[in-house]
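Tutorial handout. Part one gives the primary structure; part two gives the three-dimensional structure as tokens.
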Amino acid sequence: MKKLLSLTLSTLLLLSPVTAFANSAQTYFRGISSTGTMVTGAQSPIIVEHEQLTFDLQEFPIEHYAEEETYLAYSGKVTAEYTFHNPADYDVTAKLAFPFGQTPDYGYGFLAADGEKYDVLVDGEPIERNIRHTLFYRGEEFELEKDLPNLIDGYMEDAFWHFDLPVTKYTWQIDGIDEEEFQAARLGFWWSGDAAERKLMLMEQAGGNNSDDKIAVTRWVENGDIIEVYVFGKPLEGELEWFSENGAEDSVFEYELTFLGEETGTYEDYVFAEWEDNSTVLRHDWYNATTRSLKNCEWDHGILGSFEYMGKMHSENFLRWYEYEISIPAGGTITNTVTAPIYPGMNTRYEPPIYMYTYLLSPATTWAAFGKLDIVVNTPYYLTESGGDFSFEKTETWYQASLDGLPEGELEFTLSESAKPKAPLRSSDVTVRVAVVVAVLAVFYLDRKNRKQDK
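Part two.
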């Protein structure tokens, strides 16, 4: 019976879905009027007369890519072709940002320049574009008002965090724990300092709590462990207030803590210790993402939650963007084409698996007006679901949909190798089926027992 339950539950595994983002938004615009006056504002006069959106999805990604070369060979892409018109009586230059998502779960570990595979075109000719990165937490929802302001030129300014900020790393070694008696040993310290003077981060932090006017942070320890505490800002002026606790019960344990020394440097040294000159991430994007991550994980009294801190900025921590400029003369029209890789979330609980695609339409709300939207999904697979206001029509070679103006919400659709993929059992269904099997077996057992007694 236990074996039957185990086999049934094993069919309920789900790979975390990954959301892919795409669409162009304006970050700023500038123009010169007929009188030579510089024109700026929250919204430029440029309108989108038409957007042709083409998804070219000839293959599904695999569940995990072990080699970067194989990952980069994945061909799934989306192309947005915009017809932009400038109705104003002055020339306009606008900087655009096209977010095309995080590296998916199945490409984890590859901070790859997959965006380098494609060009940005204006009237059919490639133009200069940068690939930008901003901090983005795995599983977060894209929000235009929150994420677009993170895309800034240069280094972010902050009252505390800056290049010359002193950073000191203090190191200790712990020994003397009776590990047979204390198998869940935790070491920590109390802190009640001024956050404007310094901020502290205990590496490998496991927890923390407030008590009156101070805060405690702890980590699990074993004999020989190296304890590291980073202090940003003014160095420590005395010993930390260390304490021990047994995680299994309310008790303390004896230990020996040996101070090994300190290393000093600047915040600039700290931020760029893992950054390389040939990195696909621009230097100021790396700095800004790291600094935002530290600001986001600050607790009371300047304690930084190290388990909330992104630490080394890897591919899963970044939202990637194309950034480029377009110029449109007064009364003129141009065609702007952007192609980007697009990665689906996958649900392998279905038979066959289903692949969920998301294309963000909300960035297009930055335009003065938006005309017609035509969508083509060019794929050999079945489009099994589509959300929102989208009604796809199947042709001999693709699926298509047309809308007048921007709909509410984002574009979402699902593909599969089958027109009707078999849905997985819900946990409640599994429980019912297991209960039915148990009941049947019980009836069978009692029936056999009664028959033997009758004999």
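Part three, for discussion. The longest strand covers residues 91-101. Residues 1-20, 28-41 have pLDDT under 50 and may be disordered.
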